[in-house]
Design brief:
about 20% strand, 15 helices, seven-stranded mixed β-sheet, Aldehyde Dehydrogenase, Chain A, domain 2, about 40% helix, six-stranded mixed β-sheet, alpha/beta, 2 domains, 22 strands, Aldehyde Dehydrogenase, Chain A, domain 1
């Protein structure tokens, strides 16, 4: 019986792991510190979690480097490493309810979205990168007959993965799976708001046969554990998803230490351009889904809705009606379509943006407050603003909440100009039945992803990452496993 009572019963019974995972063992933090992780739907503590700092990071780095140097994973036969990756995927599937429950309790995402989306896609991520392992090839170049020149690929060494709270398990999978597939040792630092699923993942990875020390988890705060990883001389790469502000710090820390490789995915302010010839009903459905799904806590959320002036009023009327599908409620109820925001701090941040939108002259079409009866949680109503101009704060800054902004445009050129007038460039969409218009838009929009007549479609072959201050590097896709390796030129003189 897949109902709210079942999930609440499971939540009452769950006893999550709360320690660090270093060297194949769950251990307390060196200094014995702990911090509370809270349920944003109720404001109540879920558990006290070990809080790692620089000492724990140093220990994890030393363990990970020893494991890498030993070759126990980095030089394991590709087919054997593939088999382990497949077992990780199977382990995630076997513990789907546990993973979904932990992320639901930790950050408020609806249980139905987790069980149908995040968890199976995380398993698929490990399967995909497992399948990629024996597809990595070197090159023998054409040279003088007196030489043999080979270009080979080798792992980087120790990779640190710093992941966000909005997709705790899935973002961990996106970072960890390609790093492991490439033969690296890995240290995962989950967001302090949502650490629990990372610790279950550690158990799954260990049970699948990843040798001790190859995969480690250090819970902690960004200013402590995250900073220490980025500054560590023993870390060869850091993969980060989070805010632009912290992404820039990661680049600085890399330069201050050992010039480690850095990839960053730092969010966006993604536009959807709706042209007069669009299938309006379908466009509205996608626009509604992709600002209110996951409470708007999505890096690619389409928070800028650029609508041609000739269809603007009809679009807004349809949007208002369709958005009624999203009603905040208990995230453990499979019928709930919108849970709370991750923390009280994030709730207040989003509400402050709403107030700023009103103060700067935006028209509050609906929403804008805390839902009645849910004041104990970190909830914000689905919200829409009209009469927005491109210079307004809510049209320029990433809100990371369920707040959409509709802007009019007169023609294709103006739409592209508005779309590109942003420091971000992660995702975008254009809605049109005209093939030439679609091609021009796809060419001219400054974003790493352009969808045409859809949004958030894709599979594991799709590179995920952005232009400009949305970051550098790509997640998913075959390119990602190569980004966790380095090339070596081997020139053999035959004369």
């Amino acid at each position: 019986m897949n109902d709210a009572k079942r999930w609440h019963d499971l939540a009452d019974a769950i006893k999550p792991e709360t320690r660090l995972f270093i060297g194949g063992e769950f251990v307390e933090a060196v200094d014995g510190q702990r911090f509370a992780t809270l349920n944003p739907a109720t404001g109540k503590p879920i558990a006290e979690v070990a809080r790692g700092n620089e000492k724990d990071v140093d220990l994890a780095v030393a363990v990970a480097r020893r494991a890498y140097k030993s070759g126990v994973w980095s030089r394991m036969a590709p087919r054997d490493r593939m088999a382990v990756m497949y077992r990780i995927a199977q382990g995630i599937e076997a513990h789907a309810d546990d993973f979904a429950l932990l992320d639901c309790l930790d950050m408020g995402k609806s249980i139905s979205e987790l069980i149908n989306g995040d968890v199976p896609f995380s398993a698929l991520t490990f399967q995909y990168f497992g399948e990629a392992i024996d597809k990595v090839e070197g090159v023998v170049t054409s040279t003088d007959p007196a030489a043999l020149h080979m270009i080979t690929r080798q792992p980087l060494g120790v990779v640190a993965c710093v992941t966000p709270w909005n997709y705790p398990l899935m973002m961990a999978a996106w970072k960890v799976a390609p790093a492991l597939a490439a033969g690296n040792s890995v240290i995962l630092k989950p967001a302090e708001q949502s650490p629990l699923s990372a610790l279950l993942l550690a158990k799954i990875i260990a049970d699948a046969g990843v040798p001790d020390g190859v995969f480690n988890v250090v819970n902690g705060f960004g200013e402590d554990a995250g900073r220490a990883l980025a500054l560590s001389m023993g870390v060869d790469k850091i993969g980060f998803t989070g805010s632009t502000e912290v992404g820039k710090l990661m680049l600085i820390y890399a330069g201050q230490s050992n010039m480690k490789k850095v990839t960053t995915e730092c969010g966006g302010k993604s536009p959807q351009i709706v042209l007069p010839d669009a299938d309006l009903d379908t466009a509205v459905t996608y626009c509604v889904n992709n600002i209110y799904t996951n409470q708007g806590e999505v890096c690619s959320a389409s928070s800028r809705l650029l609508v041609h002036e000739s269809i603007h009023d009809e679009f807004v009327a349809k949007f208002i009606e369709d958005a009624k599908r999203f009603q905040p409620g208990d995230p453990l109820d499979p019928a709930t379509t919108m849970g709370p925001l991750v923390t009280r701090e994030q709730q207040q941040r989003v509400l402050s943006y709403i107030e700023k939108g009103k103060a700067e002259g935006g028209e509050l079409v609906f929403g804008g407050g805390v839902p009645a009866g849910l004041e104990n949680g970190c909830y914000v109503q689905p919200t829409l603003f009209g009469k927005i101009t491109p210079d307004m704060t809510i049209a320029r800054e990433e809100i990371f909440g369920p707040v959409g902004a509709v802007m009019k445009f007169k023609d294709h050129e103006e739409a592209i100009a508005i779309a590109n007038d942003s420091i971000y460039g992660l995702a975008s969409a254009v809605w049109t039945k005209d093939l030439a218009t679609a091609h021009r838009a796809a060419r001219d929009i400054e974003a790493g992803i352009v969808w045409v007549n859809c949004y958030e479609h894709g599979d594991m072959t799709q590179p995920w990452g952005g232009f400009k201050q949305s970051g550098q590097g790509r997640d998913k896709c075959f390119e990602t496993i190569l980004a966790h390796m380095q090339t070596k030129s081997v020139w053999i003189h035959l004369g």
